[in-house]
Design brief:
Elements: E1 3-6, E2 9-12, H1 17-26, E3 31-36, H2 38-46, H3 48-56, E4 59-62, H4 65-73, H5 83-95, E5 103-107, H6 112-123, E6 129-132, H7 138-151, E7 155-159, H8 164-172, E8 180-183, H9 187-192
Parallel strand pairs: 3-4, 3-8, 5-6, 5-7, 7-8
Antiparallel strand pairs: 1-2
Helix pairs in contact: 2-3
This protein binds uridine-5'-diphosphate.
Length: 193
């Protein structure tokens, strides 16, 4: 996919990120997706670890009007892609196939991903979601990692905030090496609210 550099950070240019990601899922190609807005781009200038996570991601989508404006001013006609909309669309699409496409929601305060999962279940009865909150520690966190390993979700949404979620994905993607992993910030709070 064509890339454009924004302050040393890659942005992938496309008009069909969803199709590209579905193809990766179909072919079992593990993928780390970063949805980048200007705050994240600024944070990465001061946080070298975050910069590396973004540089090594398989897909960086322009989430945020600042990034899109930056691209347009440099002649790149790229549409903004809201990370939450991309994630929601993938959840709905994969969810249709039930247990064939397990989905994982991880993050936010206690109870929030329960509500978010129920909301999707009401729309798509067959959807198969495993979920947990984002404040697990010790044995609970260990057990959650084991569950991810056992279930092998096709899509894993991690909402721990930036840069924690990017770091978590990089350090844990070996648990489900064929999954599409996306850092979704506060999306669970919106779906579960
Ligand atoms: N969060 C979490 N575990 C933590 C710290 C934060 O699950 O240890 C969650 C928090 O409850 C919220 C999300 O991470 O749901 C951060 O949302 P925010 O909108 O701040 O994300 P960002 O702006 O960083 O994308």
């Amino acid at each position: 996919m064509k890339t454009f550099s924004v302050f040393d950070l890659p942005i992938h240019l496309s008009d069909d990120y969803e199709g590209w990601l579905c193809d990766r899922i179909y072919h079992n190609i593990g993928t780390h997706v970063v949805t980048m807005n200007s705050e994240m781009a600024m944070m990465a200038q001061k946080n070298n670890d975050l910069k590396q996570y973004i540089q090594n991601a398989d897909l960086v989508v322009p989430d945020g009007s600042g990034v899109v404006l930056y691209l347009r001013q440099r002649g790149q006609k790229q549409k903004r892609v809201a990370g939450i909309e991309l994630a929601e669309s993938l959840v709905k699409r994969l969810g249709q196939k039930g247990k064939e496409n397990p989905i994982c929601f991880y993050g936010a305060a206690v109870g929030v991903t329960d509500k978010a999962a129920k909301k999707f279940q009401a729309l798509i009865p067959d959807i198969y979601i495993i979920n947990n909150h984002g404040f697990l520690q010790g044995d609970d966190l260990q057990a959650w990692c084991e569950k991810i390993k056992q279930v092998q979700p096709k899509l894993i949404l991690v909402g721990l905030g930036v840069p924690r979620q990017e770091e978590w994905i990089v350090n844990h993607r070996h648990l489900a090496p064929n999954a599409v992993w996306i850092g979704v910030g506060g999306s669970f709070d919106i779906w579960g609210g």
